[in-house]
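Reading is simple: each integer encodes one residue's backbone shape. The lines below illustrate:
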Amino acid sequence: MTPGRRSSTFTRLLRHGFTDPSAAERLLDGPELAPVRDDPVLLEALGATADPDLALHGLVRLLEAQPTPTAHRELLDTLVAAKPLRDRLLGVLGASEALTDHLARHPADWQALVTYEPHDLHPGVTEFERGLAEADDPVSLRVAYRRCLLSIAARDVCGTTDIAETAAELADLATATLRAALALARAAAPKDDAACRLAVIAMGKCGGHELNYVSDVDVIFVAEPAEGTPETEAMRSATRLAAHLMRICSETTVEGSIWPVDANLRPEGRNGPLVRTLSSHLAYYQRWAKTWEFQALLKARPVAGDTALGEAYIEALEPLVWQVAERENFVADVQKMRRRVVENIPLSEVDRELKLGPGGLRDVEFAVQLLQLVHGRTDPALRSGTTLDALQALAAGGYVGREDAARLDEAYRFLRSMEHRIQLHRLRRTHLVPESEPDLRRLGRSLGLRADPAAELTREWKRHTGVVRRLHEKLFYRPLLDAVAQLAPGEARLSAEAARVRLVALGYADPAAALRHLEALASGVSRKAAIQRTLLPVLLGWFADSADPDAGLLNFRKVSDALGKTPWYLRLLRDEGAAAENLARVLSAGRLAPDLLMRAPEAVALLGDGAGAGLAPRQRAALEQEVMAAVGRAENAAQGVTAARGVRRRELFRTAAADIIGSYGTETHPAVADQGALVDRVGAAVSDLTRVTLAGTLRAVVRDGWGDTLPTRFAVIGMGRFGGHELGYGSDADVLFVHEPRDGVDEQEASAAAARVVAEMRRLLQLPSADPPLLIDADLRPEGKSGPLVRTLKSYEAYYRRWSLGWESQALLRAEPVAGDAELGRRFTELIDPLRYPAGGLTEDAVREIRRLKARMESERLPRGADPKLHTKLGPGGLSDVEWTVQLLQLRHGHHEPGLRTTRTRQALAAARAAGLLSAEDAETLDEAWVLATRVRNAVMLVRGRAGDTFPTEPRELAAVGRYLGYGAGHAGDMLDAYRRTARRARTVVEELFYED
């Protein structure tokens, strides 16, 4: 061979797509291909395959395997002369190592590709049964199966059949194979065969007529006794036949296996009997079946065994399938199932998962099935088990926009084609996109991408998954807008009744009102309406994920009406990735946050500030600076306090929004797992906000009445949850007021000034306005409601020295200066420290008195009719139990354990554990109960807009509390059980530590 010729051949091979031209040249020069090495047609055909190197190597293997020179020559002659065979055979050899191995073991099977009659192009079950007819044992069945598979793959890789036709042929081949396997099982056990009627129902992709190359074949078995056979005996016979059928298909032999037969979709799954009678199936589905089990029945199709029994099974169960959309939380159940599938994908694989990952095949299938189940009851045209047929029917009926359906159809076909080619290579069950460059190159070329196959494939794959991700949820909601909008002539639209049905399925209690809101928001030709039509399909999905979609949509309309003419509003929702979802979560989670927002809708801007930065709580110093500056600009005290209350309202909204979003989670950020962190964040933020508001109010009142200096030093001491940095959304501000006359000021004048300050602060903070009031509660002061609102430091000292009661020392554990004169506040703290951290601890009499007070409070203060086990404050294991237990430890040991000298419950509990005053397990139990009770109280305020210490009784409100606490739709009962369980464990610890029982 001359160097020139070698160089020329080498170049030609490169041009035809060979990656190893040297090896290819050696094979072409070898004896097997000597007669045709110079045939240009052969090289052209090899270059058209997915992997020319693989195709050439496979061809040489096939030629080497021919048993005689005559057979060798026949193959070569046919290969050169018959283009259909050449394209089919080389196409398979270049796409599938596994089928090449089969041809090498069975070298005559290439003849199966010679036939090119019209009826051969699209064979059905009958043709495949004919192809399997001679199989008389599991091994020969496998050989015949692969021979049939060879012809399917050849038509597929040559483009004779499209993806839908290929998937249908694979399902038909599976049907023929199940029938052949059942025939073998019957022949091996004629007595069992005679004892029963057995039908095989295909499920999943086989039932849907859209099977993969390599997939479990899902089935359900139904049987009835033959005449004269007892049912028990007949079921045993049917079970043996069914199990033998499964082994025939699934077991590994010298020819490998066919595919696993999976019967786990049957009632009770793998825990249930393999075979049931029709009446047993029906009883299970009528009484016990979950939503997903009816969803699976969409694809049920009788394929083997007793035809009449199989059809009776479908006829009996089909009506139940089309009633499932009436179930409470139906849509939520289906969507939760989809989310669970995604969550179970290993993190290392999620980006390569073609079937189950975000934007994958399952997203399309779930979306289509959801729509079928909602609308299929009244429209039989939608009752197809085949995804693409069902999608086409949904578009034709106006249930899905035609353009959306076309884009999803294209994406689904591309992703299924990728899946088929990946599996065809080695006939292995996988849905992972390969990572190696050669594999990606072969995969890309198999799909017709030739310029830069790996890069083009990745680009197209990501484009199509992006389309699916954007559309699969909008698919459900966009037609609701089309139902109230002006459509192009000839475009099908969702009927008013279909829109109502869909909204009810989504959880809307008032679908007529919802449609009115959609019409008001999205109708018309303005730019605003166009943006709303883009946003609403996604927003409707997020509203539906809440406990009260109606409220979410109504609140969105109110905010949009208020901000509709503001240029940044819709742009923010459209362009800021998280803003729209954050808003949807906030508007549908309850009353408090929307109420706060409606009073100043421009606070929507907080929801779109970068990666959630707008929702981070602001530092107290920055808030105080803002409030003091606003007070300084005000003309009088009323204006100053109005400004301070405006800041408080905005920051309450920021805190509530962050809490809701952290509790619900979003598509990009999962819910915060640390419940204690959420509680601490809310408690700290609301407490800081209250401190700043009081400080600003104090400054405004003093400035208005006395200028820069009040005639007496004045301090506000936070008490209770306020002093403990544990305020909730609905908490009053528990405080004490203390003053000390300045040098040379008459005490009576000073006291009058201090009293005036207190009265004015309370009045201004409660004035009716657009901002929520801040109620000041001074009932923990000496002598309670009977005593003066404000005292001098000396008066406090005298009182605590002579008259102080045990409960007052306990209350002072939470005392902390929060506003006013810092030095006076420090001296007040020094005054009360010996009372709350007594040097000798507590006497036994004092401990008994505390326990007596606690017991009396439990019996007297619990509201009439309240369920004690669900009362978060006074019930067993509630806040009071935990706090009194912790405070008893502080009173007893605070003097010699510095860590206990804190106003914060969780910090004191942690310090007590560190000091060995209680076990780590007991501390964790108490902490968990306290955090949960606090979360429930916060949830009640967020949901109802008013404070409460027990769970709501109204179902939607209860569901909203559950959603905030991480419980999905329909799981309010689980939430209540979990609360009772947590509180019960805490009460056990309280009885041991507090009551020492």
